[in-house]
Amino acid sequence: MDDLKAVVASSLPVSPCAYVAGEPVTVDSGALSGVSGVVVRTKGSARLVVRVPFVAGFVNVELDADTVKRLEKKESNGSQQN
Questions:
Q1: The pTM of the whole model exceeds 0.90
Q2: What confidence score (pLDDT) does residue 79 get?
Q3: Domain range enclosing 29
Q4: Is residue 82 pLDDT above 60, yes or no?
Q5: What is the pLDDT of residue 7?
Q6: In a domain, 9, yes or no
Q7: Cα–Cα dist 18/46, whole Å
Q8: Does a structural domain hold residue 44?
Q9: pLDDT by residue (tens digit) across 23-65?
Q10: Domain tally for the chain?
């Protein structure tokens, strides 16, 4: 609660964001539709930096937040537990 009070008292601009660093996402629309990656950081409420696989490693791509969606968590190794 003290952190929340400090943020409010700071008068700094704040904005909500639906995504957090480390969250797996897939691009839902645009030129990179179908590409999956991991959120590296957010830039305000409307922009994300997403790390996506590339030829010899990864690249970071800045995207509009409304062009991606969360990846559903899959069970490890595709196995189901009974």
A1: no
A2: 43
A3: 14-70
A4: no
A5: 80
A6: no
A7: 9
A8: yes
A9: 999 999 999 999 999 999 988 778 889 999 888 899 999 999 9
A10: 1
Q: Provide the token pair at 65.
A: 């937040």
**Does residue 7 form part of some domain?**
no
How much of the chain is helix, strand and coil, in % rounded to 5? 20, 40, 45
Tokens for 63, please give them: 């995207």
Which of 48, 20, 25 shows the shortest CA–CA distance to 37?
Answer: 25
Instruction: Identify the sign of the CA torsion 5, 18, 63, 51.
Output: positive
Tokens in use for 34? 């179908």
Transcribe 17-42 into DSSP letters.
-S--TT-EEEE-SSTTTT-EEEEEEE
Which DSSP letter does residue 79 get?
-
The single-letter code of the amino acid at 44 is G
The rounded distance, in Å, linking the Cα atoms of 53 and 10 is 38
Residue 74 has pLDDT above 70, yes or no: no
The answer, yes or no, to whether residue 2 has pLDDT greater than 90, is no
CATH assignment at residue 63:
2.30.30.30
